[in-house]
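<tokenise_the_fold>
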Amino acid sequence: MRAVIETWLLRHWYGTHRPPLLLRMLEPIYHAVFQYSQRKRQSSMAHRRSGLPVIVVGNITVGGSGKTPLVIRLCQLAREMNFRPGIVSTGYGRQSAATLAVGPNGDPVTCGDEPVLLAIRTGSPVVVAQRRADAIEKLSDMSVDLVIADDGLQQADLDRDMEICVIDGARGLGNGHLLPAGPLREPGGRLGQVDYVITNGVWVGKPDSVDAIVMELKAGKLCSLDNAVKMMTEEFRQANYGNAVHAIAGIGNPKRFVLTLDALGIEAIPHAFPDHHSYSRKDFNSITPDSAIIMTEKDAVKCRLLGLENAWYLPVVTHLPDHFENTFKTHLAKLMEKRR
């Protein structure tokens, strides 16, 4: 049922037809409630000032936009400057309300899939909590000197020193409507208030008023789910010549993953699941044993113990323009000095 509803909404949010009247009638109600909650949260900001610099990486649309790969790259840049970044998240979709430190072997069910992936890829401390302020408090005891928040742009009571908004270039702002008539969590004018707007791929139809940096996600080597084997794309194609290949994607924009495989010359049968889907063995029952399975890295952290045969994931490497990385490092150095 969830998948059906998501598909219906996405068709209206990113299609060419006007949203249904019912959704448009609910839009001003959402806006009023959102503004009220923001004012209420802002009144408590004085009680949430962190002793650590905080960078928020978020978006203004519902669904995935590429925040996680960007957080990974920002952690790498901070480490290059000899800073010790830590990451906070709510662990969307996890089945636990506890404040938890997340390691590379963390359970996605209790920690969330993206926090486990971040722990694997960055080697930085990662903490999940229902309130990001609680996660930051726990991080403060873990020898970090910088906090990067995965999402939280709309959390007005979370004090921050830098804001970065990520936009899915292929989808942009959709039909431009607020929830539930469109995908926007808050009005598009919010982009003029953040420090940086980064687009995951070229933003088709980007407004001239928005100054955006283009981020590219390039495919790495294919990895087996147990990480025991790595293959170049050509090796994979040769090893699976004549076999069906199935593409598994439970992310915000599954089509993007299929297009990535197409660009690599891998023709795959797509299997789209809701973002943050909790996989079980039955999700793969329709796939024959002689087939190959390729999934995203985020999906892999949830499938590594399912005993799948000939199953692989495709990690991505984040590429940002040199001028942005230099600007970011200068900005980071200044705010770190300011907080000392």
Q: What stands out?
A: Residues 63 and 233 are 28 Å apart (CA to CA). Residues 21-42 form the longest helix (22 residues).
